[in-house]
Each structure stands twice: as C-alpha cells, then as structure tokens.
Amino acid sequence: MPDQRELPLAFPELGPDAPLLPVRMVNEFVYCPRLAYLMWVQAEWADSPDTVEGRTVHRRVDTKVKALPESPQEDERIHARSVSLASTRLGITAKLDLVEGEGLHVTPVEYKRGKRPHVEKGAHDPERVQLCAQGLLLQEHGYECDSGMLYFAESRERVRVLFDEILIDQTLAAMHGLRGVANLGRDADPAGETATGRIPPPLEDSPKCPRCSLAGICLPDEVRFLNQAPISPRPLFARQDFATPLYVQSPRAWLRKDEERIVIEVEKAKAGEARLNEVSQLVLYGSSGLSTPLLHELMKREIPVSFHTYGGWFVGHVVGLGHRNAETRLHQYRSSFDPPTCLNLARGWVAAKISNCRTLLRRNWRGKSEDMDEELFEQSVAPHQSEAEGALATPQERAPDELLRDLKEDARHAHRAGSLEELLGIEGIAARRYFQHFTKMLRHDGDPDFGFDLHGRNRRPPKDPVNALLSFAYAMLTREWHIALSAVGLDPYRGYYHQPRFGRPSLALDMMEPFRPLVADSAVLTAINNGEVQAADFIHAAGSCALTDTGRKRFIAAFERRMGQEITHPLFGYTLSYRRLFEVQARLLTRHLSGEIPEYPNFMTR
User: Fold this and answer.
1) Which pairs count as long-range contacts for 219-228, CB under 8 Å and 24+ apart, including other chains?
2) Cα distances (angstroms) measured from residue 519 to each of 356, 381, 440, 470, 577
3) What residues have CB less than 8 Å from 436, skipping those under 6 apart?
4) First to last CA, the chain
5) How many CA atoms lie within 13 A of 231 on its CB side?
C-alpha cells in the first residue's frame, strides 16, 4: 500500500461466529450486485462454459499448495500458492492463487481465464477490486503490499494493478455495500422475526445478462417486464441438457454404480445400464432398490431419486444437500400464514386451471354437430388445428358454445371468490363440467382397441382405463413439481390453496393445477388417440384398473415427450420446454413471495 493508514470500516470488528465475505463475492458485487446476492446470500449457482473454464484454470493452481512462511526473513524469496487468509476486522476471507515477493514485501497474483482486456486501467473494475481486497488481507497479516498482478491464462499476459487510495476506497465501498444488502450483523426485527436481506434490482438492458450463468435464476428481463417496464424479455439461453429421467419399474431390479455408469440388474443378471451424466433423475417403482455407493454418487451430483408405489403413487424423493436458500423458505412460510395472500394465489391457480381446461376442450373436441353446416365446420376447424399443441389427432368440430361460455364464467367466478371454501366449490363445478365432456376429446372409430370412455372422475382406486391414466399422469406431474420446487429452494409441503396435511406436498399440488390439462391430460389424450396405449394394456381386478408394465412404459414415453415439448410463453414470447417452464414458474413464485413482482403470473395457453 502507498501508506499504512488505518482503513475506515463501516462495520465493527466481527465476532468469531459472524460470516466473512468471500473476496470473490466482492468481485461479483462490483460486476452485478444482484448476482452477488443470489450467489452468496441465496446460495444460487448454475454453470456455464465460462465458469467451467475458469474453474479449470484455478484447479491447476490449487493442485500446488504452498503456504506463506510464518516469519519471513528479510531476504527470503516467497512463492506461495493457494494461500487462505481471513480478517475479522475487514470482515473478508479469500484464497489467493499466488503470492510472490521477498521478505515482508509481497505481491498477490490472481489467475483469470481469457485474454487481457484492452481497457484504460488495464483490467475491469471487478478484477481490480478483488485483487485490492487480497492486498488488504496481506497487509492485515503484517505484509507490505502496494500492488498486485492479474494473469490472463489465454493470452499469457500479466497486468499490474496499483493499490492507490481511489481503488482502496472503491474496494471498501464494495465490501460495505455487499454486507449492507445482505443484512449481515443485524439482529431480529422489531416483530421478533429474523431479518432478511434486500435483493438488488436487476440490471437494466445490460449486455452482461445474456452471458451470465445465473440469467435463468435471476430472470432480469422477466422481473422488469412484470413490473411494467416497457421491454421485451430476451430468450433464456439455458444450457442444452441432454440428460433424461431413468425409470425403473421391475420389482426385482437392483441398481449399482460401476465407475461412471448405473448398472441395472434383475435377479443378479444385468438388464441394462445408463451413463451417470445422461441421467437427470432416477425414478423407482415398487420394491426396486439401489446400492449405497450409487445413492452417494447421485446425491453428490444433485440428481434426485424419486420413489413410487408399484401402482404409480408418488411416495417421495431424495436429493443431496438440496437447496441452501433459507431466505426463500422464510418468505414462503411467512406468506403462507397470511389469508389474503393464500386466497389471492389460490384464485389465480384455479382460474388458470379452468381456462386451460377450456382451451384443451376447444382445441381437441371430436365429432361433428348435427346443427353445423359444412362452411361453418371448415371455418371452425382451421384455427384450432393451427393452435394445437402436442401430437393430438385433428379435432372435428368446435366445442359447444354453451360449455365454453360456462367454463369462462367459472374462471371469472374463481377470480372473485371470497374464501378458499367458495373457491373449492367453484373448482368442483368446473371440474364436473370438464370431465363430463372429456370423452368428446377421445378417439372413437369403431375399433375395440380404442373403446375408451370416461363417465366422471374416480380414483383411489381408479375404476376404468382413462381414470387409471389420469391418476398415473397426475402422480408423475406431482413428482415433477416436487423436484422443481425443491430445486429453487421452496418447501413443496407448505402450500397456500391445498392446506397442510401430513405427507401431502401441498405447494406442488398448488403449482400443478394450471398444468393438469396442459401436461397430464394432454399426455393421456395423446397416448390414447395415437394408439400408444390400448385396451390390452390394463388389468382389471376387484373393481379397480391399473396399467400393465408394458402400458406404463408406453405412457411414460408419452408423458416425457410432453414434458420435453417446446412451447411459446404467452407473456414473454420465447420458447422453452415444459420442464424448463416449471423451473421458470417456480422462480417467479419466489420473486412474488419476496415482493419483487406484484403478482404471480400464471401460465395460461392461448
């Protein structure tokens, strides 16, 4: 440093149990305050090619650990790697890639991916601040340090950064700013509840956002759009994920780990295998089991393992440490005890579900009405064909105007419901209308293999093939939402519309309401109308009906196609799959619960 002045600190010296700011997060705060908050306070993370490359560069450095000398001699040469330092007075901690020097005069060297930027100061402010913070730490530990080096791995160039008073003040301001928005070191609020931080607003139309690995978590354009900003959200360029769920339904199956593969054995004979990096989740039915080493590996990779009964009912799921964002759950629990919030969210979910049921009927109604002339028939079919989602057969007429009008009115009533009990009654009336006409969307052409009918909804157990398919589809949809909510830090068991009950994932049931017709019911229609599931794929016994192993396998394939199908978001205008959409909607719920957006935007297809 140019001088050994006492640094002005906005916070008192931290106690031994207080969290220290990682210097890397100070870098992120200068780059984007919201990014630093998401990464450090809310423990969010997602990889991108840039982050993987940067981690590779640092991994080479970290393999050669060499500590700083405790009492360096005056002429002693210093070349220390992966040096960990901390200071409770500064409130920061860091791992320095390299420290070079002689005696007490040292220079920190920070490794960076990419090429040296050709900018006025030789480097961008986030990197300069990070390096300066490392210099402050070295000074705290008794060394003299007036500059540092940035080494850019791709161009193999070094850039010297002088720690002048302007940079020191900028570094201290960044440290104080991050600690302030994180709300660290503060006690409980006057109401006796634990205080939370204040997430910074998104950057406005910044070129940093599209390349940011956390863009799909931060949702900067979506948050601004939902707060009435005059913008069009940019597409979410999520990394392409080639991993898919692995379903195992043999009751005698045993899964074990063999290097980078999952080996499936049935009665000690190998029945199949899958690469671990190609599996997004493991789904086990009945008494299928897995070894402890495989379970540990799946946990380490954050690959969820979900368990179902042999009949398909979702039992639960296991994942590693899971999401560590306590702040999101704090917002969720607080709002779940607020009756107006519960009612407002429940109204939106039920109204969206009814609207989507109406859309599904309108698009996929079958059979020509007696009072419809040929010209009107042709006019009514064309628009529905162009709007149709999925591999559903072509509808042959439009749904009765009276039915569509009634469902539209039910959705309006749902928006105006005065209580959860009233809303439950409205949902029941709309569901009765919908399922009374569900058969009109099924294929009937005289073939006995397509003789599927639905005379009302029944379950536990389902008594006919269509109800068996619906129940199985809803169980799989519950699992998908359970995993999506857990992945973003929400508790799937604390809901708003579905009240808490032992063993019931209430929030997962809440969030899946608008997607029952769009994903589950649509997959059922596709499987039946395309002939993927036929009458021979069901077992009837003791007044119940269930899928055979073969039928279940075929329907799982239809359901997974639906989950992977790309659609256009009606609000944001970009395309994404249903599985990706679930994550976006879950994150939008967290933004609403934290007060970032005024209303939760339900998904209603056009």
Assistant:
1) 219/584, 219/587, 219/588, 219/591, 220/34, 221/572, 222/572, 222/584, 222/588, 223/591, 223/596, 223/597, 225/571, 225/572, 226/571, 226/588, 226/591, 226/597, 226/598, 226/599, 226/601, 227/596, 227/597, 227/598
2) 10, 22, 18, 11, 11
3) 456
4) 63
5) 16
CATH no., domain 244-318:
3.100.10.20
Regions of the chain where pLDDT drops below 70: 1-17, 47-67, 69, 71-73, 184-197, 236-242, 322, 367-399, 444-456, 458, 502-503
Joined together, the tokens standing for residue 537 give 């794929």
At 48 the pLDDT is 59
Beta bridge partners of 282: 246, 305
Question: Which helix (H) or strand (E) is 453 found in, with range?
Answer: none
pLDDT in tens, 371-393: 333 333 333 333 333 333 433 44
Strand partners, 464: none
What pTM was computed for the model?
A: 0.79
Among all chains, which residue has been given the structure tokens 């005056």?
Answer: 74
pLDDT tens digits along 197-236? 688 899 888 888 888 888 888 888 889 889 888 877 877 6
Domain boundaries of the chain, sorted by first residue: 21-182, 205-239, 244-318, 326-593
SS3 of residue 576 by DSSP: strand
Helix (H) or strand (E) holding 147: strand 147-152
Round to whole Å and give the CA distance between 583 and 562.
16
Q: Which residue has the tokens 């393992």?
A: 305
- The domain 21-182 is placed in CATH, from the list 3.30.70.980, 3.50.50.60, 3.90.320.10, 3.40.50.720, at 3.90.320.10
Residue 141 tokens, joined:
């530990």
Is residue 78 classed as helix, strand or coil in its secondary structure?
Answer: strand
Looking at 1.40.20.10, 1.10.3720.10, 3.30.565.10, 1.20.120.920, the CATH number of the domain 326-593 comes to: 1.20.120.920
